[in-house]
Amino acid sequence: LQEENASLRSKVNKLQILAETQADKMRKLERKLEENKIKEEKEAQDLEAMVQHVEQNLQLMTKRAVKAENSATKLKQENALLQAQLKNYKTENEALRSGQSASLAIMKRNADIALQNLLTVITRSQSSIKQLVSGAESLQLVADLLKSIDRISEIPDDGQ
């Protein structure tokens, strides 16, 4: 009976040691799980902040593109007006050449001024068109970035 009792005590001791070992493992796994949860929450917050930043940049670039487009439209209208004026000045210049040589110098000066204005408008419109194209390229880049963010958020976790 004593031998059996000693054998059972030995088994009980072994089971207690095994239970303590498993309890330690369980505590370690719980700590690791909590650390992973905290890490995932921080990553989610960082990702959300990045998405908000990208959205703000997208809105800003959209405003810039709209402004550049409006500016390009105004410059095109001004360009058309100046071209019409230039045509009128040229017609008037030709009329003056045929009969009135005194007014010829004034017409030439007016035509030169119109030409300078036209060249200025053309230069400005080219710059605005370049800005518009640049803005469109930036918007495309942001759209591609947002697509890649969606892909990242859809990737399943292998370990969980």
From TrEMBL:
InterPro entries: ENTR1. GO terms for biological process: positive regulation of cilium assembly; positive regulation of protein localization to cilium; regulation of cytokinesis. One of its GO terms (cellular component) is early endosome. Keywords: Coiled coil. The keyword Coiled coil applies. Residues 12-99 form a coiled coil. The keyword Coiled coil applies. Belongs to the ENTR1 family. This is Endosome-associated-trafficking regulator 1. It comes from Crypturellus soui. The lineage of its organism: Eukaryota, Metazoa, Chordata, Craniata, Vertebrata. The gene is Sdccag3_0.
